[in-house]
Amino acid sequence: MTRKPRRAPVREPAERAGGRRSAPARRRGVRLQEAFEAWADHRERRGLRDATTERRRIELHVLPVVGRKHLGRIRRADLEAIATRMREAGLAPKTIRNVAAAVHALFAYAERRGLARRPLPRFDAEILGPMTDKDPAWRPSAIFDAEEAAALVYDPRIDPDRRVIHALAFLTGMRLGEIAGLRFAHVDTTRSPLGAIVVAETYDGRPTKTHLARTVPIHPQLAEILTWWREVGFVEGAGRPPRPEDFVVPRRRGRHLQPALCRTKNGIGKAFGRDLERLGLRHRRFHDARRTFISLALASGAQREVLERLTHTTRAAPSAFDQYLTFDWATACREIAKLELPVPDHALDLYALRGPPARPTTDATAPPAHTTAPGMPKAPPEDAEPSQLRENARQLPQKNTRSLPAPDEKAPGSREVTWWRRRESNPGPEALEGGFYVRSLVDLDVGWGTPTDRRSPPRAPVVSPHGRCTPCGQPVC
Fold first, then answer.
1. What phi-psi label fits residue 449: left (phi over 0), alpha (psi between -120 and 50 degrees) or beta?
2. Are residues 400 and 335 part of one domain?
3. Domain encompassing residue 55
4. Same-domain check for residues 305 and 403
5. In this predicted model, what pLDDT tens digit does every residue of 55-108 receive, in sequence order?
C-alpha cells in the first residue's frame, strides 16, 4: 500500500483569526516599500527641507533593490548590494553617503514605530568605502579669483537681478537657498557701522540648514548695490516699490519680477551656468561662490574665527570654549570690510541712483525742471487755462502731434500717430462722426514738449464726445 505525501501546512493571511498576524509575519514585519511611504509622508507633513530630495534618493537607489523585501529579512548583504549598484553607476562617494543617511533615517523611523521587530542593519565604513572626490583634480579648481567674482557682480551683460544674486553670494557667503529666501524685512540698513542681513530661512519660509539664525554684516560694496536695487532696479522690474514681505530677488517671468514668488535651486543654478558661459568663464557650481568668499576674506587678513561664526552657525561638535566666545558687531564689520572686489570704472554708472522726475515750477529762482528740446514750446505755468494747454500742444512739431479730425475727415490710422486710442477696435462711420476719442495733450510727469509714449496710458485724458471738450465745452480744434 502506497502512502500519500504529506502536504505542507497552509499559512493563513493576517486578516484571519481576528486580524492577528501569524508568528512568521510578525517576525518579518511590513515591507520596505510600505515603511518608506509612511516615512516619506511623515517628513513632508513636518515640512522638512530635504523631504523631497531624500524621497527621490531612496526611490532611485534603494527600492529597486530591496523595495519588496520585508524589513525583518533585510541583511547586511542587501546594503552591500545597494552600495555596489551605486558605484557601478558612477556615483560619487558623497552621493552614496547621502543615500545611506536617508536609509538610516528610514530604518530609525521603522524601529520607533514598531514596524520592524528587530534592529535593522546600517551602512558602515567598510560598505561605504573611503570619502574621496569623484574627480581628485576638481576641488583645487572649484573657486573664483577676485577678477572673476567682480565680473559676475559688475558686468552689464548680466541681468540686474542676477548681478544682485552674485553680489550676495560673493560678499556675504550665503548659501543658495538662503539667498532665494531672503526678504526685505531681513535687511537692516540702519545698523551701524554696517547694515545687517538676518539669515533666518530658506526658499519659501523653510528653516536653514542648521535650524538657527545668524546675522551677517552688509559689505560696503554690497550696500551700494542693494540701495540701487531697492530704489531703482526692483521698482523697474516689479512696477512698484518693495514691501517688507517681498523677496529681495524674486522669481522673474520674462522681464517682470514677481515679488511674492521665490526662486528655485534649479533655476538659479542653470542661470548661473549661462552667466559663466556669457562671460567666457569655465563652469563652476554656484556653491563655489561661498568658498570664494571665505578664501578671499582670509587672504585679505580677516580672522578665521569671525568668518566661521558669520558663515556657519555652530560646529558639529562645539567645544566648551566656543560656547563662551562672542564677537561684538564692530569686530564682525571690520573683518568683513577687509574683503574688496575690484570695481570697474563703469560701475558708477551701472549702479547710479536716478531720482523721480521733477515737476515744472513757477519759481523764477529755481532751476528748470526739464530741458526743453530745440523747437519745442516753453512750459506754461501750472495754473494755466485749458486754452493755453491746447495752444501749447498746437505748437508741437507736426511729426509728433496732429489735431483731432473733423467729422468729415478720415481718421488717422497710421502707426506714426502713436498717442491715439479709440474706444472701439474697429469703429464704424457712426463712431467717427461722434468723435469718440481719448487724447492726452501733455504729460506733466514726463516733461513739457515730450510726446507721450504709446505704451504708457495717458494720465489726464480729455474726453471729447460729439466733438466738444468736456472741461470747457468748446469745440475741439
1. left
2. no
3. 23-128
4. no
5. 999 999 999 999 999 998 999 999 999 999 999 999 989 999 999 999 999 999
